[in-house]
Design a protein that fits this description.
alpha/beta, three-stranded parallel sheet, OB fold (Dihydrolipoamide Acetyltransferase, E2P), 8 strands, 2 domains, about 150 residues
């Protein structure tokens, strides 16, 4: 998973961000968005899966500025998430089925993408893998698929 860390604040925030970076760098692709070119430009080009913003209210950056920056970062994150999901449409994925209710099975891909598909409740699929073809993104940002193999 690609993780970006953005620090807005004092030395304590910097220390905390460094600790998070050290904890994650052995298991994830982690990078910082603190110096150099525009944060927003770097996020667009790096396309992180997760963005961590570390901030506090006791800093030289006003609260309204932080709120504005966080909103921009959330908007960018949401757009990148939607673009990522769109790139998966038409592809086949294994999904672990976590629930089946009212003819709808729900689960997650190996990269935690929420997926659902129509399925008979009589099929014993709960807590098992199923192969799906991803078809479309629903209004709730869940991807809908078609069952290929139970």
């Amino acid at each position: 998973m690609r993780i970006a860390i953005k620090t807005l604040g004092c030395k304590s925030n910097r220390y905390e961000s460094d600790k998070v970076f050290d904890e994650l760098r052995n298991t994830h692709d982690v990078f910082e968005l603190n110096e150099g070119i525009s944060t927003f430009t770097r996020i667009h080009s790096a396309k992180p899966d997760l963005l961590i913003v570390n901030t506090c209210t006791v800093t030289h950056v006003a609260d309204n500025v932080k709120k504005e920056r966080c909103k921009k970062l959330r908007d960018i994150s949401n757009k990148l998430g939607l673009d990522f999901k769109k790139s998966l449409i038409g592809q086949e994925y294994e999904v672990i089925i976590e629930s089946i209710s009212d003819g709808i099975a729900k689960g997650f891909t190996k990269n935690y993408l929420p997926v659902q598909f129509n399925c008979s409740e009589s099929i014993d699929m709960l807590n098992k893998k199923a192969k799906l073809k991803l078809e479309k993104i629903l209004d709730n940002a869940v991807v809908e698929g078609i069952l290929l193999q139970p």
